[in-house]
Amino acid sequence: MKMRQARVSVAAAVVLSVVAVAGAESLVTVRVGEQDTCGIAGVTTVQSDRRARQATIRFDLSKLKIAGEVREAKLRFWVNHADRTRESFAREFSSNRWEDRAFDGFKVWMDGGGDAPLDVFYPFERAVYGCHEWDVTKAVQAWLKDPAANRGLKTNFAMPGNDYEPPWRRPYLQITYAGDSKERPKAPTAFKATYRHGQVFMTWKQISYDGAFFDSSYRIYRHTAPITRDNLNEASLLGEVHKNSQLNYRRASYWWDGLMAMAEISRNWPGIRRKELLVACWYEATYGGRNKRNRAWKEWGKKASSSLWNSDYEGTPLPPLRNDEGS
Questions:
Q1: Tens of pLDDT along 156-184?
Q2: pLDDT at residue 47 above 90?
Q3: DSSP label of 75
Q4: β-sheet with 6-13: strand ranges across
Q5: 27-178 in CATH: which number?
Q6: Which of 40, 96, 217, 315 has the most CB atoms in a 10 Å sphere around its CB?
């Protein structure tokens, strides 16, 4: 089963000659693990020691049927840095780790693959939700050639196990390989680049996608010549943004010291659709000033997290209006 992921490349030459493309070759991406967006599950073994700050994770790749060459493989998992409960991994991945003079990054090794780490990741300076990832392409390529060599990955940090709640914070393996992608998304339309005050602002019309917002992303590339399907691999990747990146949730969190309620969000975003309204309200209920301390909004935010994560906008109720809110 292939994961439902939409990734679109928005390409622009440095001379602002622009063209939207979907990729230089057909690629397929699958997720392996016990995280709730994985297409191949029941394959993960995790041994984690939080006190010793180390773990071993192994993915059984026998269910993975890949004909083409693996282009990229990443070990990934999400951390909620605002979650301060004992079960959370926010403390382990805090930027405060830099206070330890011996700390030199979160490392991942191929078990049995030598002393050099496959990749090193460094803590976020400031973030709420952080997707931590490590490039383990060499390990996955080796395991697919010789399954007996798959002893897993070793880390110098603890990680969530298979039964960790909520499921979306569990580790998983994301593999991209050359193959016929029947779910290739269309390129975005109405791409524009505008120069103002020393900055270039790029906008485009998003493609329709009903999955989780973090599985729909847009990549921005730069090249010295007009970008085509043939030279996209030679272009420089400038950045990547998720779907709905146009929603500045900080605006919702800090307006009037976080006192905004649903009706006020609607009034200040004329014509806002239900899903954008729900997302803005959820950020306000979760991170915004006084509404974060408001019991009714806080409880609504907790209940809405799961359905919004899965893009169930119709099934997610709207938050309480101000005159219904409890203190």
A1: 999 999 999 888 889 999 998 887 777 66
A2: yes
A3: E
A4: 18-21, 6-13, 216-223, 236-242
A5: 2.60.120
A6: 40
